[in-house]
Specification:
- The longest helix has 26 residues.
- The protein is globular and about 80 Å long.
- It has 756 residues and is of the alpha+beta class.
- Helix 1 crosses helix 5 and helix 11 packs antiparallel against helix 12.
- Helices cover 40% and strands 12% of the residues.
- Helix 25 links the parallel strand 19 and strand 20.
- A five-stranded mixed beta sheet has the order 15-14-13-16-17.
- It contains 28 helices and 21 strands.
Length: 756
């Protein structure tokens, strides 16, 4: 099984500060395969006629597995109070599981059988709540939350405005009127070692215990696993180590279809055929595992090179397009039972499509098949010519750069990224070649490979690519890479009590981050207009230097108060500064930390190392803080001292009026995000941060530019955030520039930096 984003190949510790990430530990298809026997499991008709009885069947099916209860696993070498180890399904079946692990198993089985199950987190316990108002297909087809969901949750989590008492009262009411069923999942376990008591409960006992547990304990959160997985942000992790699956019974499992009605995020949906649920199974990462009892001898050769088959994303798109085309062109039905696709299979399909009527379904299928064939050829070339280029962060960055509509898609591996290029290419691209060429050239530039190589030109000729366009892209990519490594750094500095700086300093940095030229201190009026005037003087100085080349990026270091009041990218320097430059903000006091903040400022380097070495390099890792948590100042500061927030920090509130708290946070967190106005929909904002993580911090300026030209409701969610981004080059610059006493000599100007 291929590991899906956001953390490919890793089964991570769960951070309690991000309850939605529990969705990553639930793979309904995987769980359905592993726990398929013994049955029986509920069918479509059974769960439609008796949803409570369907939940009973799932519960009793899990109880028949002979699972044991086991306390939480602890990793003493990497223990952290804000994190918890979660055993994968295979380990739970072998060694037992705790209340959370058993609840996740039960939830996964419910989802596999189209029952909407939620994880209810109490302060010291976990159990499940199952919605009895319909199945998942009914839930998604309406496009609306379940009736009265707003009383207990919002966007798949506990409603931030709902108090614990009101949520519990609402749950009690839902249980009483049959809307939800609370289930104590530890009741599926049998006795452990001889002499240990059994926690086994009959189904009705488990339901009664679930209601009693909720009445006794405070509800800490509610997590709608299906909601978070459907959005694509929290896709299931791959279980660590080898996985051995039992041959499944014909159970219903989710089938992924990128061409589904929800369009942009290609959410997981289950196909229906002839009024009944199809069990044609989820495409596994190798394109072959099926959950419909198909002959497993038909699997592709796992030793075959990965470019001999489409990626999982492409295989799902092809399956969806083929089903729709076959419904209008029966001759294509012969391809429906194909367990996996090769390059030769695609060629045969295209041959069969040649005489087919040019209806929309046939055109779409032909378009997908041709694009995937080109993507497979590109995969083979990249693997042979520049295998080092398949770096996960580089793949993500290049995909976002080349295919604007791919932000909500989270492919894994080179094959799926190439699938995404052809599936989400611009509408003006007729045959995928321009998009693929752009992707390959930009990927080569990211890997430091020169596309002037004759091997690259030969591939272009053989594949029908435009060589002149390839050379143009090569020159532009090289120019952009050079521009990205050079910076203009501006330090605007003022007295601690002032809202606006009264001096400006500036440096030009070369490709290695070394200062080459320095502007001595320039005084300015401590007003917004005075700061803009000083910034204009800095730009004039830089452009008048001999041999000056365009600086795409402008780094601006600001005092704490100014960070909260001024949007530097909107400074009027003829046009808005952000119109032609990427504007990156820094905490100005990091150059010369005040005495009372020096201990906190030392933490920035440790937290940045956590972001770089332990965080997700593709989708980031940010701890988000609610206003209620920050209002409990003593408790919040204690959590900071215990390092519960380990890397980057995001604030879900406007920090106006909390300057002292903001200053303490920006001192110790090198990456700090906050809104400058009220945000009503945080889920979209946080998903956008993860989607575009590899583009940050420059991606903020891109989002601001888009917001300038769009209505508020069409602006990118990222545009609602401000950010301080003190990356490693900036911390190194601060150490060099802020602590020296002799100054930095500059050959070009002969000026010297002032030590302070």
């Amino acid at each position: 099984m291929t590991a899906p984003p956001p953390s490919p190949g890793r089964w991570e510790r769960w951070k309690r500060t991000e309850p939605a990430r529990l969705a990553c530990y639930v793979d309904p298809a995987e769980i359905a395969l592993r726990y398929a026997e013994p049955g029986p499991w509920p069918t479509y008709l059974q769960r439609s006629a008796d949803p409570r009885g369907a939940v009973r069947m799932v519960y009793e099916g899990l109880a028949a597995q002979g699972l044991r209860y086991e306390t939480a696993a602890i990793d003493f070498t990497g223990f952290h109070t804000a994190e918890q180890l979660i055993r994968p399904p295979g380990e739970v079946s072998a060694r037992g599981g705790n209340c959370l692990e058993l609840t996740l198993l039960f939830t996964g089985l419910c989802l596999a059988h189209k029952l909407r199950a939620l994880v209810v987190l109490l302060e010291d316990h976990a159990l499940a709540a199952v919605w009895l108002g319909g199945d998942l297909d009914d839930f998604w087809s309406s496009g609306l939350p379940a009736p009265r969901d707003h009383l207990i949750m919002s966007q798949g989590l506990l409603g931030t405005r709902a108090g614990a008492a009101s949520v519990r009262d609402a749950l009690d009411g839902f249980v009483a009127d049959g809307t939800y069923l609370l289930v104590e999942c530890t009741g599926v376990t049998a006795a452990g070692e001889p002499g240990t008591p059994s926690l086994r409960l009959a189904f009705e006992e488990a339901v009664a215990e679930g209601a009693a547990r909720t009445a006794r304990g405070r509800v800490a959160d509610i997590v709608d696993i299906a909601f978070h997985q459907r959005g694509g942000l929290y896709r299931p992790y791959a279980p660590p180590g080898p996985t051995t699956l039992a041959d499944p019974a014909p159970a219903e499992v989710p089938c992924r279809d990128p061409d589904g009605a929800d369009g942009a995020d290609r959410a997981d949906r289950a196909d229906r055929a002839d009024g009944a649920d199809r069990a044609d199974g989820a495409d596994r990462a190798d394109g072959a595992d099926r959950a419909d009892g198909a002959d497993r001898a038909g699997r592709p050769d796992r030793a075959a090179p990965p470019w001999t088959r489409p990626g999982a994303l492409g295989a799902r798109a092809l399956a969806g397009a083929l089903r729709r085309a076959a419904a209008t062109e029966p001759a294509l039905a012969a391809h429906l039972d194909r367990p996996y696709w090769t390059r030769e299979d695609l060629a045969r399909l295209l041959t069969d499509l040649a005489p087919a009527p040019a209806g929309p379904e046939g055109i779409r299928l032909r378009d997908v098949a041709r694009g995937l064939a080109l993507a497979m050829d590109a995969h083979a070339f990249i693997a042979a010519w520049m295998p080092q280029a398949a770096d996960p962060a580089a793949l993500r960055r290049v995909l976002l750069d080349c295919v604007a509509d791919s932000a909500r898609v989270r492919p894994h591996g080179l094959a799926e990224h190439l699938d995404a290029v052809v599936l989400y290419r611009p509408a003006a691209d007729p045959d995928s070649r321009p998009a693929l060429l752009r992707f390959v050239v930009h990927l080569a530039a990211a890997a430091g490979v020169d596309t002037a190589d004759p091997a690259f030109h030969e591939w272009c000729r053989a594949g029908g690519y435009d060589i002149a366009e390839a050379d143009r892209l090569r020159l532009r990519s090289r120019r952009r890479a050079e521009d990205a490594r050079r910076r203009l750094v501006v330090h605007l500095r003022g007295a601690p009590a002032q809202e606006w700086p009264d001096t400006a300093e500036a440096w030009l940095l070369d490709e290695r981050g070394h200062p080459t030229d320095e502007l001595p201190v320039v005084p300015c009026e401590p007003t917004a207009e005075g700061v803009v005037e000083a910034l204009c003087k800095v730009l004039d100085w830089a452009e008048d230097l001999p041999g000056f080349t365009y600086r795409n990026r402008v780094d601006i270091a600001l005092p704490t108060r100014t960070l909260l009041r001024w949007r530097a990218e909107e400074a009027d320097v003829g046009t808005r500064l952000g119109a032609h430059h990427q504007v990156v903000l820094h905490w100005g006091e990091r150059l010369h930390p005040p005495q009372h903040l020096r201990r906190l400022a030392r933490q920035a380097g440790y937290r940045l190392r956590h972001v770089e070495e332990e965080g997700d390099e593709v989708y980031g890792a940010i701890d988000w803080v609610d206003p209620g948590a920050a209002d409990a100042r003593a408790d919040f500061e204690e959590r900071l001292r215990k390092n519960e927030y380990r890397g980057a920090l995001g604030l879900r509130f406007v920090p106006d009026g909390r300057e002292s708290l903001f200053e303490a946070l920006v001192a110790q967190f090198p990456i700090l995000l906050w809104p400058d106005r009220t945000v009503s929909e945080w889920t979209a904002v946080e998903e956008d941060v993860r989607d575009r993580w590899v583009t940050l911090p420059g991606g903020f300026t891109e989002a601001y530019r888009a917001a300038w030209t769009r209505a508020d409701d069409a602006a990118p969610p990222l545009a609602g955030l401000r950010a301080v981004w003190d990356d490693r080059p900036w911390l190194a610059f601060c150490r060099t520039t802020g602590t020296h006493t002799a100054g930095i000599g500059t050959a070009a100007r002969g000026t010297r930096t002032r030590g302070r």
